[in-house]
């Protein structure tokens, strides 16, 4: 891919760093010329008309005062003034209009419908007066060709009935999307292994490692069985992997009413819960990016792995699988005998009694997929920085959806377009960011973070040297309650920004106040999981990052019922987490005139945009590594407590954390000293000192990465935060140490515990490197 012009060499920025000082120099040059008028008069007049020295001083002071007033009068508004203006700017209908347009049809990655949505996003960004473009990749995707699931009362012919599941999500009466429901892909698991399998049904709860361990302890052998597990605790790809490792012939994953039934509020459309026929689809690939180009971009004509090499990677499922609905899962459970499952393995009240099996119910499963190269498109808009155009603040959201995607991901896409519109309005009022802002709309996230990963891999070195931060919003709104995860140096910035934004559900308090009240245990999460597009930025390159959203898990996730109607009725009934304050908007699914609703401030866009503005505009980057060091200390203590009595010492890690805290305190004091000096009238501001200090703050996160990556998962370079070995959604601190401890507990050999110690040393070394970067001096 050609490198976009905004990724060009920093030559254009050389003058940009002199712009402020240049303006000051011009003003100083102009000031004497203004004052020279009375001086010339004095020098050429005769002695008889010589103006007294005191009069000259008065003239000088008057002229200087006039100049100062003029300077203050014509000075542009401060950055903070523009930030306040950003929060007040809004278009009453923007987010709702965008969401309605984005979700009119299903738009899976690689399809013409998703290409049309990409064109819409590109046009919307351009309409906001932002330079926009798209970048395409040809990537390896899969689509369903043929599926079947047949349940028999026993493996042998018997008089009992045989049930062939229709595997269809039903259209409800009055569904405004009925006319396009046929465009929804048949329910499937992306990258599932094609093939057929048959075996007795066995129930494995959530399909976690501990669930299969409990089955073994109960004497239940799932070898050759078709395992039935339910969604809800771990990534579906890890459910399939765990079933495969346990010897299962195939896996069926169902959406249990216990987890997705709406909590007693009813099923959609009457309530928020997943309908009985609803199915959660999704990917089973356990890596990031195009499976055929691991570690490099899927550019045209690039090197690619063969199908055999992809299969040998171990990141693709080795057994076939299918997702099914709650009603189909319960039908299977009714045919499973054997031991009664534990209480916490049971379903909701009124559900059949869950037993472990295997059998006598017998399942025949067939899945045939179409594996193909398909074109995807990332869309970008760029606002070039005025003083530091080669420093980038990136905001990202993905566009592709498994069906209509009203929550996941297009509530985030609508917010991204609202942020873009507000930035465009700021520019028309004179705002120019100090650093470059890049708005990113990713494709093929649902398949395995493909669009963002390919772009990061293609621009790895540029991002490594120039990216300030990445701010991700996937599903912006699924319900009430604000949630955020971040690399720890951004914690304080998130808190400060949330104090400026009004709570969308309680106008009497700030977002920060409601956030603190609802999150007692951990206010800000960490970005170790691999669930969305921050992954490549944090875990592959080491860019400080944030992920934000309103609401938590929602019942119709990845089903055909994640549409505008669900959002309007249950996700954000008044759209007050989406749209702007003090206005009204008329809309409906079929027209735009059915009824009025009152809209409040779009808090998602406000929070997202405000954090971006502070990172892009503030002279000193608002990073705090003192809190980072404290976080590392707490996480190390948790792991140390987990191996008490074992031949492992965490002393090297604690020593490096101490050095990091010392370096963090030092750079914080240096920043404060520069700020004090800049306030002095006698101090000439030195942009290079600001730049150098900011670069240390920016690059310290990179130091937490290691070129060799995690053991057995080399693509993941970050040794502080990464996904769990057995749950891609799960975030782990010190993932290398955690993986080694888990293995050592299982093997309990001197070699395995020595490897734990080795991983402690590795983590200690990257923390030491981060401290050296913050210090900014060689040893």
What features would you highlight for this structure?
alpha/beta; two-stranded parallel ribbon; 19 strands; disordered N terminus; 779 residues
What's the layout of helices and strands?
Elements: H1 11-16, H2 19-44, H3 53-74, H4 79-88, H5 94-102, H6 112-127, E1 132-152, E2 163-164, E3 189-190, E4 195-203, H7 209-217, E5 226-230, H8 236-245, E6 250-254, H9 257-260, E7 282-283, H10 307-312, E8 321-324, H11 326-333, E9 362-383, E10 388-398, H12 410-428, E11 435-442, H13 445-448, H14 450-458, H15 460-466, E12 467-472, E13 482-486, H16 491-498, H17 511-518, E14 524-525, H18 534-541, E15 545-550, H19 564-571, E16 583-587, E17 595-599, H20 603-617, H21 625-642, H22 651-679, H23 687-699, E18 721-724, E19 727-733, H24 735-747, H25 750-775
Parallel strand pairs: 3-7, 4-5, 5-6, 6-8, 10-11, 10-12, 12-15, 13-14
Antiparallel strand pairs: 1-2, 1-9, 4-9, 9-11, 13-15, 16-17, 18-19
Helix pairs in contact: 2-3, 4-20, 5-12, 6-12, 12-20, 14-18, 16-17, 16-20, 21-22, 22-23, 22-25, 23-25, 24-25
